Amino acid sequence: MDSQAFTLFHVVISLAAIGIGMIAIYGLLTANLWDRINMLFLATTALTSLTGFFFHRDHILPSHIVGAIALFVLAATALALYAFRLRGKWRVVFVIGATLSLYFNVFVLVAQAFLKIPSLHVLAPNGSEPPFAIAQGVALLAFVAIGVAASRRFRPVVTGLS
């Protein structure tokens, strides 16, 4: 696969992970455990992080660190759901892990938007200017609020997770 096709594959998987993640988080907020949606979200998010490591770079970038942290969080999230079946504190581990996993994807989406969309890039060409910080801050606050709300609301009856 050439680099342009691989980049397109990575972007499509990333956007799919974000879209599916939004549905999964909606499920958490409405106390619904959608087995296939959660499985698809965890799989596409893991694939997003894994494919990110295959872009050629001469040194470790912040995206590699975020990817490694994301994979660790995904592992704990999957364990909470599939191994520990959301029992006890594992319910909260799952909710926080799923929310954090989606946040990491959105964090990268915002960063890439400021890099690739000319009208945003002009506002923050170095990625350290106030518009970039404000956008990332708003995303962070939104996900903290979502995580808190989901932790309070999500109390599913766990059956046969497929």
Subunit arrangement of the protein: single chain
Helix content: over 70%
Radius of gyration: 16 Å
Query: Beta-strand level of the residues, as a percent range?
Result: under 5%
Total separate domains = 1
Average residue pLDDT: 93
Number of beta strands = 0
Shape: globular
Question: Largest sheet, if any?
Answer: none
Pattern of helices and strands: HHHHHH
**End-to-end Cα distance:** 32 Å
Low-confidence stretches: none
Commentary on this structure:
This protein has 162 residues and is mainly α. It has one domain (3-54, 61-153). 77% of the residues lie in helices and 0% in strands. It is built from 6 helices and no strands. Helix 1 packs across helix 4 (90-116) and helix 4 runs antiparallel to helix 6 (130-153). The model has no long low-confidence stretch (mean pLDDT 93).
